[in-house]
Design goal:
Order of helices and strands: HHHHHHHEEHHEEEHHEHEEHEEHHHEEE
Largest sheet: 6 strands, mixed
Strand order of the largest sheet: 7-9-10-12-11-13
Oligomer: single chain
Number of helices: 16
Strand content: 5-15%
Length: 568
């Protein structure tokens, strides 16, 4: 990779170099012709060597064009006219072999200026022809033989010179047109704070369009991308990547302004590269601020979750004592008490149990959010955990007047999962179903193996869920239903179900229709024997709308800890 880029030439400099090259070619051809004429002189002794030497002089003078520029163009055209007239006259005037060289000033004018030089060059060519005619008529021009070899040389040299002149003019006009386009593009890039760089196959700067960004204001105007960066290796790697893959993008701190930030986008074009540079200092500062704000928010949320987890532990200890002592009092274990005191003790026990359930839910959710929840995986029959949950909710179902049924297969459902999580999933889903099912309705709990998945479905004939509520359910503290149903819970039940399912690599989906009931399906890839599959049980609630929570990617934090971040 080149580290020192050659300075790009401007269109004017390129035009002057092309004109000098054209003059050098003319000089070399005339000099070669003079050498040949000196070796094989004409038989009549005509001064052909002198004529060729005089014709070569403007070519030699034209080599000075890159140094002096257009300041000598007018003088050079006059020199072309004088030398061309002298060569024509020395060669025998209009009847000599070099008469065609009277138009060489026109070719020189095409090379040096195109349209702005052509009128003067054409006038000089016409003057040379007129002078040759006058010299021929006055007898001033020597009479020579035709010399076919010299005539052929003159015609070929002029034809090649004119063709080359036209090519030089076309190249110059294209460069000037491109320079004008560059000016328009530069204005557009300047308005948008951009700079466009063109580089060759080695990464060296060819040309640049647009002004340098403020962060590069002190840099060399002809510095390449590698020289602009504080870390050249990074720029070299980006250039190599752009050549290999077609494009690359990298940011860098300028060598002269380490507190600023420039973003360069590189694209491969033909045998080179283009790079668009922009000052992204403010954008990077905003991104850094957003990242810091996000990190602070994550830290605060993690601190909140840790606080809730710790406080839940502290609250459960005295609450268990309250529940235990109130249970002793209402059961009159140590002696008789009045019925009113027994009623109060029952209310304390009931309220304490409700509060304990709430604290347990908050504790589980805070552990999951803080990525501290540990799955205790073991091999067991999932029917045992589901049956235990049904036994715990049987009293609640009887109190609500709802028919609670379990549809479990006759064969074992051997799984590798967290027993408590499976039980909690069923408890939460059945509690929700009982809460939203009117007296006389029914709730069916079914489980079966679906390939490698354990499928648990809790379906009810309750009031159903509105479509708008379906999209919210499953998030922490989100509830559906009326104010009475909302007052009976915390909005953590379904959130915990979804979290437990996703911690096992599964999903939770809800199907519901208003007035027809709800069916919640949990699928987890925890089956040990995927061969036996139970038939799908009947479900009382048809589906009208569906919301499925897809499991996010999880990462293991330890031998038995799974990271999980719930949706918000």
């Amino acid at each position: 990779m080149s580290k020192a880029a050659k300075p790009p030439l401007s269109p004017t400099e390129r035009a002057l170099r092309d004109a000098a090259a054209w003059h050098g070619g003319w000089f070399a051809v005339m000099l070669a012709g003079a050498v040949v004429a000196a070796i094989f002189p004409p038989s009549d002794g005509s001064p052909m060597v002198t004529a060729l030497g005089v014709a070569a002089l403007p070519g030699l003078a034209g080599l000075l064009l890159p140094r002096f520029g257009d300041r000598i163009e007018a003088s050079l055209l006059i020199l072309w006219s004088v030398c061309a007239a002298a060569a024509v006259l020395l060669g025998g005037g209009l009847t000599g072999p070099f008469a065609i060289w009277s138009v060489t000033p026109l070719a020189a004018g095409i090379v040096m200026g195109g349209g702005r030089r052509l009128p003067g060059a054409a006038t000089l060519s016409a003057a040379i022809a007129a002078a040759a005619v006058l010299a021929q008529m006055s007898g001033f021009a020597p009479v020579t033989e035709l010399h076919p070899a010299f005539a052929l040389f003159a015609v070929v040299s002029l034809g090649v010179a004119l063709a080359a002149a036209l090519l030089v003019m076309r190249r110059r006009d294209a460069a000037l047109s491109l320079d004008a386009d560059d000016g328009k593009i530069a204005d557009l890039l300047y308005d948008h704070g951009l700079m466009l760089m063109f580089m060759d196959a080695q990464g060296a700067l060819r040309r640049r369009v647009g002004a340098l960004p403020d962060a590069l204001s002190g840099a060399d105007e002809r510095a390449g991308l590698v020289q602009l960066t504080a870390d050249p290796l990074e720029a070299i790697e980006a250039i190599s990547t752009a050549f290999r893959q077609g494009h690359a993008r990298f940011g860098f701190a300028p060598s002269g302004a380490p507190d600023r930030w420039i973003v360069a986008t590189l694209t491969r074009r033909h045998n080179g590269l283009t790079a668009v540079l922009r000052d992204a200092t403010l954008e990077r500062a905003r991104e850094a601020g957003l990242e810091q704000a996000a990190a602070d928010a994550e830290s605060l949320n993690a601190g909140k979750s840790r606080f809730l987890a710790n406080m839940s532990h502290e609250l459960r200890t005295p609450l268990n004592a309250i529940i235990g002592f109130s249970d002793i009092m209402r059961s009159r274990m140590f002696g008789p008490i009045s019925d009113r005191y027994a009623e109060y003790a029952g209310l304390v026990h009931e309220s304490g149990g409700h509060l304990l359930d709430l604290i347990n839910d908050v504790l589980d959710m805070s552990k999951i959010e803080a990525q501290r929840f540990e799955l205790t995986r073991e091999e067991f029959d999932a029917r045992d955990a589901i049956s235990a949950a049904l036994r715990l909710t049987r009293v609640q179902a009887d109190t609500a007047g709802v028919n609670l049924r379990g549809a479990l297969p006759a064969t074992p459902l051997e799984v590798d999962a967290d027993r408590r999580a499976i039980k909690q999933i069923v408890l939460n889903l059945v509690s929700n179903a009982l809460k939203f099912t009117n007296k006389g309705g029914q709730v069916i709990v079914s489980a079966r193996a679906q390939g490698p998945d354990l499928e648990i479905v809790v379906a009810d004939t309750g009031v159903g869920i509105a479509t708008d509520d379906l999209t919210r359910l499953g998030r922490p503290f989100e509830q559906a239903g009326g104010s009475e149903q909302r007052a009976m819970g915390t909005g953590l039940g379904l959130s915990l179900v979804r979290a437990f399912a996703e911690l096992h690599g599964g999903t939770m989906s809800i199907e519901s229709a208003l007035g027809e009931g709800t069916a919640v399906t949990v699928r987890m890839p925890v089956m040990l024997d995927a061969g036996a599959q139970a038939p799908a049980p009947p479900q009382p609630a048809p589906s009208a709308a569906r919301a499925t929570a897809a499991p996010p990617a999880t990462a293991a934090l330890g031998s038995n800890v799974v990271a999980f971040k719930p949706q918000r």
